[in-house]
Amino acid sequence: MLFSSIPFLFYFLPVVLILYFAVPKKLKNTVLLLSSLFFYGWGEPKFLIFMLISITQGYVFGLLIEKYHGMKRSKVFLVASVLLSLGILGYYKYADFFIENFNALTGMSLPLLRIALPIGISFYTFQILSYAVDVYRGDTKAQRNFINLAAYISMFPQLIAGPIVRYSDIALQLENRTHSIEKFALGVRRFVIGLSKKILLANLLGEVVAVFKATSDPSVLFCWVYAFSYILHVYFDFSGYSDMAIGLGKIFGFDFLENFNYPYISSSATEFWRRWHMSLGSWFRDYLYIPMGGNRVSKPRFFFNIFVVWMATGFWHGAAWTFILWGVYFAIILIVEKLFLLKFLQKTHILKHIYLLLIVTVSFVLFDAANPLEALERIGAMFGAKGLPLVSSEAIYYLKSFGVILIISAVGATPLPSKLISALGKKRTGTAVLTFAEPLVLTALLTVCTAFLIDGSFNPFLYFRF
Q1: What is the largest CA-CA distance in the chain?
Q2: Which of 190, 232, 334, 345 is a good FRET partner for 250, with 20 to 30 A between their CA atoms?
Q3: Are 162 and 259 within 8 A, CB to CB?
Q4: 317 is catalytic
Q5: pTM of the entire structure?
Q6: 407 exposed, middle or buried (CB, 10 Å; 0-12, 13-18, 19+)?
């Protein structure tokens, strides 16, 4: 079930809200757990089995890790939990990738398993891993209530698309969180904004991407229109889902951390990755990069650490060489920046932003490609390597048709709209206008989004790839 769907918006969510706020405090997590399991099992009930196995092992090993804290057995149980979590993830997400590459290297023809990928497995696996490690480190207490831990891991607001919520961040909220009309209203506001970003911007930009991939009239201009459409599509799709997750969390009394902070205004790749998918970046920093020594090691080891972390980051996104190369691409750029480029960029103004947008655009063309050869062809075509005409009639047509959406999206990816609203809110008349206009605008946005969904418009789910 998707947030951006009629069944979720007008059947599932209203029923869950009624049940959640009708039951006493001690049963709220139970309602949250049962509704999350129903939400997850809506498409493929069989995947519930593997989620419940993952939750159970996380619960049992968490208790054992804490019970034998400071003893060798604690580490044994941690390793067992980590191996089991990664084993399940590896089997479902990467088994066919390894078989394909083994066959290519050896000339053998082992049959592929063709296993369906359980939705959200990368997200909830990382949550279980961080929980087990935090208990081992003594950063948090093991959760003794199975329902509370299961509700945390399976919580439908952030289950299938993040952000990656760490147990330590919401441990207290699981047992004692506040609900208020003000918090509920903030949650609704954030959810509607996220839904609008997904349906009214990301989906429309996704149509341009789909048209480019099917075009018989390519040109250099069309390649760039596609590339810019795709980087905006990915941003509004992913940040839109994060907004919806954070909004739903507030509705149910939780405060999830932010996941995006206007990454396209960055002036370097280093800054970009402090603003993009922040929950994933901080996860790899705290559970892989720092344990490997971080930057407090020799320079060769420091570079090695960056390569390992970024190859892992790329591989986390999917079982394909394009994702691994995408990670290596950023590893190289980050190393070059740390060696000398950052000092140079800091002395520039516009150039550093152009540089960032260029390297990010190229990176996401690689990210979107089906294979490295396709990525190389598309990137080459952007710079005229394929001998394509500079302009085509189809490129002009779609640029005119979607030009307004591209401009709105580009502006919306910056803090400018937020700053304008904040400036307006500082004035007495502005506050009155916002108080009156906000519910009307949110209602209008929800109505338009609903109309798009009823119409059956283009509404892909980007995270099936992950």
Answers
A1: 74
A2: 232
A3: yes
A4: yes
A5: 0.93
A6: exposed
